[in-house]
Amino acid sequence: MSxxxxxxxxxxxxxxxxxxxxxxxxxxxxxGRGLKLQFKRIKDKDTVSRVTRKSGSVTIEYTSIAAAxxxxxxxxxxxxxxxxxxxxxxxxxxxxxxxxxxxxxxVKGWMRRLALAGNNLILIYAENTYELEDDPFFGYMRGGYTxxxxxxxxQYAADLGIELVGCIQVLAHMQSTLRWADVYQDIKDTATVMxxxxxxxYALIQKMLDFWGKALRSRRIHxxxxxxxxxxxxxxLNRHGYEREFDVFNRHLAxxxxxxxxxxxxxxxxxxxxxxxxxxxxxxYDPNHKVPKDVAxxxxxxxxxxxWDYYHxxxxxxxxxxxxxxxxGFPPVMASGIWTWSKMWYDHVRTAATIRPCIAACRSRKVxxxxxxxxxxxxxxxxxxSALAGIVFASDLAYGSDDEELTAARFEAIxxxxxxxxIIAGEMCYIDSPAADPVTKMLLVKxxxxxxxxxxxxxxxxxxxxxxxxxxxxxxxxxxxxxxxxLPRIDENAAGDVAHAVNTLRxxxxxxxxxxxxxxxxxxxxxxxxxEIAVTMVPAAIxxxxxxxxxxxxxxxxxxxxxGLEVIQVRNAGVIARLEELxxxxxxxxxGDTDVIDELEARLPLSAPxxxxxxxxxxxxxxxxx
Length: 626
Known about the structure:
By secondary structure, the protein is of the alpha/beta class. The protein has helices spanning 16-22, 65-76, 104-116, 147-159, 175-178, 181-184, 199-215, 235-240, 245-262, 272-276, 293-297, 315-327, 348-364, 388-398, 404-415, 419-425, 447-452, 459-467, 471-486, 498-524, 527-559, 565-590, 598-601, 616-619, and strands at residues 4-5, 28-29, 35-41, 47-54, 57-62, 81-85, 89-95, 121-125, 163-167, 220-222, 266-270, 304-308, 333-337, 369-374, 430-431, 443-444. The chain is built from 24 helices and 16 strands. The protein has an 8-stranded parallel barrel with strand order 7-8-9-10-11-12-13-14, surrounded by 5 helices. Strands 2-1-3-5-4-6 form a 6-stranded mixed beta sheet.
């Protein structure tokens, strides 16, 4: 990559903070030798960057700081030309509530990459991972951001042309707070939902709004209000009797909206509850039931609705849902997804299958604001840095570029890593199968299932076996194929840590091979094979799990605060303990101390239904105590 030099005298002052921030990591400076950078602000109805080269210089024409940064990213990658995007706001939503809170310095590194990819928006999703004054149990032991940390991030984002927006919850998704019953009992409706119409509920919400109003310069705030499954079904029902959920929901929104107005904040909410409450199945995407007119008319006109959809691969579906929002009087903000949840590594296959039609629909329906969510459901165990490949890919699509070679060049210039390896590593969860997923056209075998599946119970293994009797053989072959590609790059860690991907693959392979061999040998009564499993395969699986645990810890502590790591370490240690138990049980069986291994006898036949297990709590035990 060439060196780039800019001049303090001729560079527009609005770009100097961005350039100074980028000097920390990239070959751009106001001193020394290199290609001379020249910037020229232009007027255009769309965000635009234009990069042109002449001998010894690069000119970047731009309409915003984000456009200038995108142009600079293109210059780093030796990509010239003009780009446009219809999106006035483009960025990500970073989940810091599902177990992991990214370190401040690491977030800054992400901000640099986001800016160079042309993004100007970050929503930071924090349910209770921020510190409220005089409220020590709000976010207790969760590593929440302080006011000063968020103000520091906000200034850094502003320097890079990025709007940092708080994304909180003021109704549901509050279980991590409401668990402290002695403190929050008076505002608890159900285990996850706060009590509507209770003055103490609004006192807490006021504290939240005050915090974010001080923390960030953006006057926009996302107040959540999604997935309130049991709204008004707990203490509220006992206290007030039955009331239509729509009315309770809108009344609560009106109260919080009024509080936002007084604080000078402009709220947005997830839109799903309006669509869910309109049908008996609580289905967000149900095409047959409309939101009642009286409900739509009661939504405050200043509230922005955010339509989230990470699941569909038909452009027409997104268009229909966008139209339904517009018919209610609320053209939506679009939230698509860069798939990080229920994954150990960024899933490019599903991301590409859903983002492409979503962006096409947004262009068709002239949606102006687009973000990509990056959830951490069930523990935030995905190696988030691997998703930088998804960020560059999604950004390119938003700018109208769907050229894999150009995306690879941008990614390698911005993230200092090999794009193909990051993408291929994420394919560890897909195999060809007759039981193919309708979106990806392959069978998705969730990597957490294979790593944390109990080696004696094997509930996840057996569930996949009922989908495809050869899934284990196919999965091991797929992982081996990916390993062959990754091993030459095992020292690469500027984006996703390839060594951790290798350890993840080896843990999946050894545990999958172990369970397949165990079932086959036990069913056949092959005592020689069972002894080989006890002597060789069980120790190999234990060693692989220890390597996985070690690299997991390393990448976590490199990028995130330590809080939440305990959850994953307990899971890993539990699997290791259960592998040791499997070794003991095999030896007892082979020595004649027992006639059967009960867990292997209890397996369901292949003809039984396959179950979607989703989370760790459902794959390591059939009980409810964990």
